[in-house]
Amino acid sequence: MITSTRNALLLSALAAVCLGAAPATAEPATLDAYARQAQAEDPSFGGFSAQRGETLFRARFASGKAETPACVTCHGDDPRMAGRTRAGKAIEPMALSVSPNRYGDIAKTEKWFRRNCDSVLGRACTAREKGDFIAFMTTQ
Amino acid sequence: MTEHVTIWDRSIRLFHWGLAASVAGCLLTGFLGFPGAFDVHLWLGTLTLGLLAFRLVWGLVGSRHGRFRSFLYGPAAIAAHLAGIRDGRPARYPGHPPAGAAMVFVLLAAVLTMAATGLVALGGIEKLGPLATRIDFDTGRAAAEIHAFLAWGLLVLVAGHVAGVLVESRLTAENLARTMIDGRKRVAPDGGPEWAMDDDAPRVRLPGAALLGGFAIAAAFATLTLYRAPAAGLAPDSIAGTPYAEACGECHFALPPSLLPAETWRTMMATLDDHFGENASLMPSTENRITTFLVNGAADHWDVKAAHLFDAPAPDAPLSVTATRRWRHLHHDIPKARFKDPKIGAETNCGACHADASRGLFSLRDIHIPETDR
Q: Among A60, B71, B230, B365, which is disulfide-ready with B235 (CB 3.0 to 4.6 Å)?
């Protein structure tokens, strides 16, 4: 119990270092949970990277569904701006600075990673990818 | 020395121009269908029905030349009258001449049929009006088809009536339209006692103007109350705020369950991992709850028009409403680009224009297309 808490603290500290120059506007508990998972999935996990998160956010994938080749297809190029679903509904901005409660609910966060990683990448995302993604959004 | 006598009483004249105006208004609002036209159409249609009721009573107990019996002519009389017109010397009649009388009966029957089919269509399709609980959708749709077809017939009849009046006026050197304003006609040289408004038959005297005003107000009142919204039980409840609307409304306008048959909803919910090109999967418990909600409210359980219109799925997109031939036809006059405007977003956003979409009504009167830039 004590060990896992210490691990989590250690990891989030590590994550904070990896975020680089731009300071996080918030440090969601969700990120801690993903850090624990990432460590379990890959013992060589060395913390999240906002830069890798941005690459993931902007990359185009051929492996997913044809209608949704990238995150930016619906979320837009600027995470501080609202996106738009293919059905025309506005999507709350992804950046934590604009939507402070964005990743607070882990069940909701998981629901959307489950759906959207399958839609865009054609597979589930790893915990590291999810953490990188949120790490990027905390810098925005 | 020419003598003029009053032939048409005031009520008949008021009726005539009242009917002309309301029928013209009905044709205009029916054919053009501009925003707000539906309410005006219902109001004028109801007024027309009131005017017809008055005319039927007046045809029995009104003044001499307004009574139906006074202008019932057989085919021989009509043929003789038409022959007179052909020769340029039609015989003069104090009341309706035979060909004109035939036109009066045909016009009255046509307008009556229009009003009746209109009410049946309103009840069956929109679930509004006095027949809403008695007429099913299919009957209403059949009535609407007759209504739409007959509208063209009525247009032709009105044109024929006006042409007949012009020809007859010219040949008899008497402005017949004017006689319907002041009621007076020039007495024929050999004019007998029938050249008068009244005879010995008992006649009911009604305040025509007050009656017509009353009809107009009653019709407006009926439009505002009787036609306002379907009675409880005839249409589904709004889905706003339900777990279904919350879950599905995250990405798109949550369609009212009554829009699609239960079978389509089952397939839709079983294929959420590839939902119109996206993974929209739910947790199994949520998925089951929403499937039950959709199946229970599906088109199979309702007789509203939206539950009947999209029952022929598009072969290449069997789950889509907007891909159906009927949806495309109903929206064909709206440019595709307009749907992309941020105020609408997409074709599937029914609620952007249909204020009652969450109830699954899609009433003609509740269409409010937002002002868009495109």
A: B230
CA B331 to chain centre: 20
**Residue A3: pLDDT band with limits 50, 70, 90:** very low
Q: b/e for B66-76, b at 16 or more Cβ within 10 A?
A: bbbebbebeee
Q: Which helix (H) or strand (E) holds B6?
A: strand B4-6
- Which residues are paired to A51 by β-bridges? none
d(CA B213, CA B206): 13
Enter the CATH code of domain B4-228: 1.20.950.20
Q: Where are the domains of chain B?
A: 4-228, 243-366
- Torsion of Cα atoms, B199 then B201 then B204 then B207, to 10°: -10
**pLDDT tens string A97-127:** 998 888 888 889 999 999 999 999 999 999 9
CA of A65 vs chain B CAs: smallest distance (Å):
6
- Which of A75, A111, A121 is the best residue to mutate to test the B interface, defined by the most B CB atoms within 10 Å of its own CB? A111
pTM comes to 0.79
Write the ipTM: 0.77
Q: In this structure, what token pair is assigned to residue B96?
A: 């309706």
Residue B218 parent element (H or E): helix B208-225
| Bridge partner list, B275 | B278
Residue B207 has pLDDT above 80, yes or no: no
Residue B23 clears pLDDT 50, i.e. is over it: yes
Q: What is the pLDDT of residues B297-306, one digit of tens each?
A: 999 999 999 9
CA B207, CA B8: separation in Å to the nearest integer? 15
B75 touches chain A (CB under 8 A): no
> Among A90, A50, A133, which Cα is nearest to B253's?
A90
**Lowest pLDDT segment from B32-36, B128-132, B366-370:** B32-36
pLDDT at B39: 87
Q: Tokens at residue B169, please?
A: 């006026």
Query: What's the gap in Å between the CA of A1 and the closest CA on chain B?
Result: 30
B residues 102-141 near A, CB within 8 Å? none
Is the model's pLDDT at A16 over the cut of 70?
no
Residues of B in contact with A116 (CB under 8 A): 279
* Angle made by CA atoms B149, B152, B153, in degrees to the nearest 5: 90
A112: buried, middle or exposed (CB in 10 Å: 19+, 13-18, 0-12)?
exposed
Measuring CA to CA, how many Å separate B298 from each of B11, B133, B257? 52, 20, 5
